[in-house]
Amino acid sequence: MQLHIAVCEDEKNDTDILISHLAGICDDLGIVPEIDVFTSGGDFLEAAHEGDYDISFIDIYLDDINGIDTVRNARTQNPDSCQFVFTTISREHAIEAFNLNASHYLVKPLTKDKVKESVERCLLSRRQMNVKMLEIKTGRKRIPLPMDSIIYIEVTNTLCTIHTEQGDYQTYISLNALFESLDKSRFIRAQKSFVVNMAFIDSFFYDHLILKEGTEISLSRNNSPKLKKQYQDFLFRYVRRQGR
To answer: pTM of the full predicted structure?
Structure first.
C-alpha cells in the first residue's frame, strides 16, 4: 500500500524528526510512503490544488500563511481533500483545528507514538469514508449494510436473504433492485437466484463456485465465461491494490 504524505513545516529540525517517525511507522505498517516537504503554506496549497495527498501534517505557526488558514483554503479549494494533522507548540488552536475537521492535533515535541496514533486514525477514517453501503428495508426498519460485509444474496419466491459476516437479513426488495444498487466491480449475478460477493469466493469452477464459508452455488451456464472473466478481473485488481 502506498501513502502520499505532505509535511508543511518551516523548522528543519522538526521536519527531520517528523519524517523519521513517519518512515519508521510506515515500515511497521507495511506502507510505502511518498513524502513531500513544504516550508510554507503557499507552496503547499499550490501543490495540493489537485488534492492528491492522503495525509498532510501542517505546522500551525508558519511564516507566510498560518496552518489554520492554509487548511481552510485547502478545504475551500477541495472540500474532500486529504486528511489533516496539525502540529504545533500550543494547544490554543485546538478548537479551530477541529472545526476544520482535522483528524488529529499534535503538540510538539512529536514522539513516534503520537505520530503513529495520528496515522492510524487517518487510515481508519479513510477506510470508513470509502465504505459503500446498501440500505435495505426489513419490516418497518431501514438498515444500512456495508457492502464489503455482504457474502451473498439469495431469493426464494419474493423474499431475499442477505447473508453477511454479521448475520442474515431478509427483505422483500427484489433481487434485481438489490443487484442494481451494488458495486459491480465486486458483485456478480451468479445465476437468477443468487448474487455473490467475489471477495468471498474460495473456488471458481465452470459450472459452480464455492464460497469460503462452504456454500456451493451453481453458475448460469450461458453466462459462465463472462462470470469467470469478471472474477479474474476482480482478482487482478485485488492483487494490484495489495502491491501498492
So the answer is: 0.57
